[in-house]
């Protein structure tokens, strides 16, 4: 179903949740590689190296000339794409990969949900269109506090179990950087340069723009650990396909369609909370790790409740606003 010619709210939420399932593979595979002492620099860089041919092939298959168009656009004025790609992809994924060495997949995935709160706080400064509401969506931030509580419980559970506070900052600080960079890079490209481009083309352009950053990271990885192993190459391809292509395109499509309505956009971004659930299940089934503790499960429950509350409250308010506008007209 559609609302005003756009995909329905429920379809956008479904796309966001499906994206979170594919995103969760990143946390699981990154932890798997970390446990194998693989270089985090290569793990991060290889994902985006593999995304270039995958996205290029996808654009070519569409047959709409988007590959040629986006290549020309980036080639003509590469600076904004380098900035957007470095921030939205580089400063997002490099810290995320680094953090995998300091906690289980579900802890990294749970702490990453800070991006919901940070995205809401940055909302007024990331929009340029005066026709769109730019006030901070305080009601969504109140709901986000439930998610923040869940994240706190996850951290406390992990620390109380390991009795190692020294591992908290190397996990939290990189994830704070990643949680800020991801919405900033995504929305900056939407608001300033790429709103007229399709989702695949925009993602491809940002990936191209991020390549100088990833080349530097790859050189760093080579100097520290030599060339990547075969297993790291294979798992990096899986991450590139599942998280880098499928999940990113689903999430960018959903945020693009919800962009004109800040409350719905906040709800779509909140679907990323489901990543922690999928990451916990995947860590148990794929990596053979034990289930999170009771306190951690309560934290995961808070995140899920926050997600549901976020979605329901955001769905009601736009409809009420819409009905008021129709009445006043």
Task: Give the structure's gist in a few sentences.
The protein is mostly helical and 329 residues long.
Features:
single chain, 329 residues, mainly alpha, two-stranded antiparallel sheet, 2 strands, globular, EmrE, membrane, transmembrane helix, EmrE-like, Multidrug resistance efflux transporter family protein
Description:
- The chain is mainly α and 329 residues long.
- It has one domain (6-321).
- Helix content is 81%, strand content 1%.
- The protein has helices spanning 9-35, 40-62, 66-76, 78-99, 105-111, 114-126, 138-162, 169-194, 199-225, 230-258, 262-270, 274-285, 294-328; strands at residues 2-3, 6-7.
- The protein has a two-stranded antiparallel sheet.
- Helix 1 packs antiparallel against helix 10, helix 6 packs antiparallel against helix 7 and helix 6 runs antiparallel to helix 11.
- The radius of gyration is 19 Å and the shape is globular.
- Mean pLDDT is 82; it is low at 318-329.
């Amino acid at each position: 179903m559609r609302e005003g010619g756009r995909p329905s709210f429920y379809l956008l939420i479904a796309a966001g949740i499906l994206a979170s399932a594919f995103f969760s593979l990143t946390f699981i595979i990154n932890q798997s590689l970390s446990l194998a002492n693989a270089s985090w620099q290569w793990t991060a860089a290889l994902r985006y190296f593999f995304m270039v041919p995958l996205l290029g092939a996808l654009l070519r298959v569409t047959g709409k000339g988007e590959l040629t168009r986006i290549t020309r656009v980036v080639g003509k004025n590469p600076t904004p794409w380098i900035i957007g790609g470095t921030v939205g992809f580089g400063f997002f994924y490099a810290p995320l990969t680094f953090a995998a060495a300091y906690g289980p997949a579900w802890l990294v995935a749970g702490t990453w949900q800070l991006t919901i709160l940070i995205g809401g706080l940055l909302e007024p400064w990331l929009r340029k269109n005066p026709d769109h509401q730019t006030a901070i969506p305080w009601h969504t931030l109140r709901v986000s506090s439930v998610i923040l509580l869940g994240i706190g419980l996850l951290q406390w559970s992990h620390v109380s179990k390991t009795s190692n506070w020294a591992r908290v900052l190397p996990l939290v600080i990189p994830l704070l950087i990643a949680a800020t960079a991801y919405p900033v890079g995504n929305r900056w490209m939407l608001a300033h340069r790429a709103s007229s481009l399709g989702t695949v083309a925009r993602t491809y352009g940002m990936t191209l723009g991020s390549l100088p950053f990833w080349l530097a990271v790859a050189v760093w990885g080579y100097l520290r650990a030599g060339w990547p192993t075969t297993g790291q190459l294979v798992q990096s391809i899986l991450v590139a396909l599942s998280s880098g292509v499928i999940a990113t395109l689903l999430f960018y499509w959903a945020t693009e369609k919800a962009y004109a309505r800040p409350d719905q956009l906040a709800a779509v971004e909140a679907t990323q909370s489901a990543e922690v659930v999928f990451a916990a299940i995947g860590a148990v089934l794929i990596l053979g790790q034990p289930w999170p503790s009771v306190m951690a499960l309560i934290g995961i429950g808070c995140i899920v409740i926050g997600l549901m509350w976020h979605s329901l409250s955001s769905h009601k308010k736009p409809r009420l606003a819409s009905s008021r506008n129709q009445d006043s007209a």
